[in-house]
């Protein structure tokens, strides 16, 4: 496995790679969710590139950035065992040298929901992913369903800018108790984690209501909200949207998704389920 720290080193390490080149961008603190992205990519691609970069540009709150776990040595071990060929782990200066001034902004999809609550977040994501995709010249890039809006933003970006990369979704990996794996979970107290379990429960309640004849997007939202409210978490949104356009759905003619964001112990958690 080759470890590179600048775009030039990465280009040199890749040389003339065997195609398809698969790419998995991460911010490190790797867990089984990331490993499932590596496994999907390893399965389908000749060359596997991963990046580990805590992207300051996508954090709207400096304290969130400061608290972000940094575990490079164990991350590299996981990359090795998942048979990653090349890891790209630049520092902030290598990614954003003095004079850097371009921002990639995806429009409405980047401004609603997570984008509304975290101004500038998706501009940061879109900018770094554009840079990463052009640096590794990936044919296929893999993203987790857990960050469903991020996936939609990246799909839009790849299409709008003709990036020539296929975007694949990998299902959310959950802990034994149903909580979606996230590098933020280690910041939860025992009590906070117990409360956070109302998130997967709310998605279950949403699915059950969805299957009831006569259910509507708003009855599904209400069912999910009731499960969350019981936990005392701070709810940011519980919403049913069209899974592609993210327009709030009037009915269930197309695939819908339910998206949830809530905070406990000062930790913002998101999760979602496809209703189909
Ligand atoms: P992050 O390091 O948090 O930026 O995440 C890097 C990639 O891993 C993103 O595409 C995430 O959606 C994905 N990811 C994070 N957690 C999970 C999970 N529990 N299951 C599947 N994919 C995940």
Structural notes for this entry:
The strands form 2 sheets. This protein has a 6-stranded parallel β-sheet with strand order 1-4-3-2-5-6, sandwiched between helices. The protein has a 3-stranded antiparallel β-sheet with strand order 7-8-9. The chain contains 12 helices and 9 strands. The termini are far apart. Strand 2 (21-26), helix 2 and strand 3 form a beta-alpha-beta unit. With 276 residues, the protein is of the alpha/beta class. The chain has helices at 7-14, 32-44, 62-67, 72-81, 92-95, 108-111, 114-117, 121-136, 148-160, 190-196, 198-211, 217-229; strands at residues 2-4, 21-26, 47-52, 86-88, 140-144, 166-170, 234-242, 256-264, 267-275. The mean pLDDT is 97. Adenosine monophosphate (AMP) binds next to helix 2 and strand 5.
Shape: globular
Helix content: 40-55%
Low-confidence stretches: none
The profile of the biggest β sheet is: 6 strands, parallel
- The Rg value, from CA coordinates, equals 19 Å
Bound molecules: adenosine monophosphate
Distinct helical segment count: 12
Q: Strands across the major sheet, in which order?
A: 1-4-3-2-5-6
Overall mean pLDDT stands at 97
Q: Helix- and strand-based class?
A: alpha/beta
Number of strands: 9
Distance between the termini: 40 Å
Beta-strand content estimate: 15-25%
Which series of helices and strands comes N to C?
EHEHEHHEHHHHEHEHHHEEE
């Amino acid at each position: 496995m080759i470890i590179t720290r600048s775009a030039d080193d990465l280009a040199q390490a890749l040389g003339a790679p065997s195609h398809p080149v698969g790419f998995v961008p991460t911010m490190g603190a790797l867990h089984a969710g990331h490993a499932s992205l590596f496994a999907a990519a390893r399965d389908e691609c000749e060359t596997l590139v991963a990046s580990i970069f805590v992207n300051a540009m996508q954090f709207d709150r400096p304290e969130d950035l400061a608290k972000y776990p940094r575990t490079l040595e164990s991350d590299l071990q996981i990359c090795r065992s998942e048979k990653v060929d090349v890891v790209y782990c630049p520092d902030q200066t290598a990614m954003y040298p003095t004079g850097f001034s371009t921002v990639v902004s995806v429009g409405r999809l980047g401004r609603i929901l997570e984008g509304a609550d975290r101004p500038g977040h998706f501009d940061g994501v879109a900018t770094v992913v554009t840079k990463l995709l052009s640096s590794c010249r990936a044919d296929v890039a893999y993203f987790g369903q857990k960050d469903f809006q991020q996936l939609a933003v990246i799909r839009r970006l790849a299409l709008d800018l003709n990036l020539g990369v296929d975007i694949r979704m990998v299902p959310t990996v959950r802990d034994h108790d149903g909580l979606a794996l996230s590098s933020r979970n280690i910041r939860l107290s025992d009590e906070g984690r117990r409360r956070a379990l109302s998130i997967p429960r709310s998605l279950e309640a949403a699915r059950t209501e969805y299957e009831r004849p006569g259910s509507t997007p708003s009855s599904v939202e209400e069912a999910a909200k009731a499960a969350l409210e019981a936990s005392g978490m701070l709810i940011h949104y519980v919403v049913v949207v069209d899974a592609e356009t993210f327009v709030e759905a009037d009915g269930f003619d197309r695939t819908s998704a339910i998206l949830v964001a809530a905070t406990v112990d000062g930790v913002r958690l998101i999760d979602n389920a496809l209703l189909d």
